[in-house]
Amino acid sequence: MPAEQRDDPQPRRDLHPGWTRDEVLAAVRELRGAHATAHGSDDDGLRERKKRLTREQISDVATLMFCERGFDNVRIAEIAAEVGVSEKTVYNYFPTKESLVLDRADELEDELRQAIRERSPGSSPAEAVERMLELELEHYVLAGALVQPMMLEFGRLIETTPALKAGMRDLMARLTDVAAEELAREAGVDLHEPEPQIAARAVVAIWDVHMVTRRRHILAGLTGAALQDAVRRDIRRVAAIVSNGLSSWTPTG
């Protein structure tokens, strides 16, 4: 029977022994709030802010349920009931089940475009992405230790769910397209020339490495400032390699 038609919910794994689900979701909301403040989303009008918060709540609850029981074992109807909205409302915000998890795709495109376009004079695109990720890391650490195991589970969810792995590949391709467009525009060359294409792939790879190194240091037991410092060092090392390797072509603002 397809997952969306199941009548026998799968047992829930306790991802955070000693903590309630509400406490975990509150930590994730804190992370969301820091991000919204940094990127101006907190300045939205009341109606837009209410819509954004509803969308985030649906995504956060869905992602937690997927981590607890598996992506294919959770029905949209169960998510709607948990949040207290209709199934139609869920679909109004999220056209596909995968988009419930990868809900920040559009935001990440905008943030990457802004980071490259509005970087300080003389800095490279790689350095712009480095600063973007360091701000993300700061929010992540400030949100507290409860976010860390959730992020580990998020990574496991992506890796063990073929549909989400494919969705993540699509997201990386979208980010690469954004970077290529911006780099080609700055250099005054055609988007499809080899240079903006390879430069975009290298710049976006910093974001990919950031996720891998963050997971590695969390598994090694680092938390708080120690985690932030370790991941920051890795990001800077990678950004330096990219900046040096592409310095003969990429524009510097």
Q: What is the annotated CATH architecture of the largest domain?
A: Orthogonal Bundle
Strand content: under 5%
Structural class: mainly alpha
* Beta strands, count: 0
The helix content, as a percent range, equals over 70%
The CATH C-level name of the largest domain is Mainly Alpha
Counted up, domains total 2
- What's the SSE pattern? HHHHHHHHHHH
Which residues form runs of ≥5 with pLDDT under 50? none
End-to-end separation: 56 Å
Q: Give the C-alpha Rg.
A: 19 Å
Q: Can you put this structure into words, describing what you see?
A:
By secondary structure, the protein is mainly α. The chain folds into 2 domains: 3-101, Arc Repressor Mutant, subunit A (Orthogonal Bundle), CATH 1.10.10; 105-245, Tetracycline Repressor, domain 2 (Orthogonal Bundle), CATH 1.10.357. It is built from 11 helices and no strands. The protein has helices spanning 21-38, 46-69, 76-83, 87-93, 97-101, 105-117, 125-142, 147-160, 162-187, 194-219, 224-245. The protein is globular and about 55 Å long. The N and C termini lie far apart (56 Å).
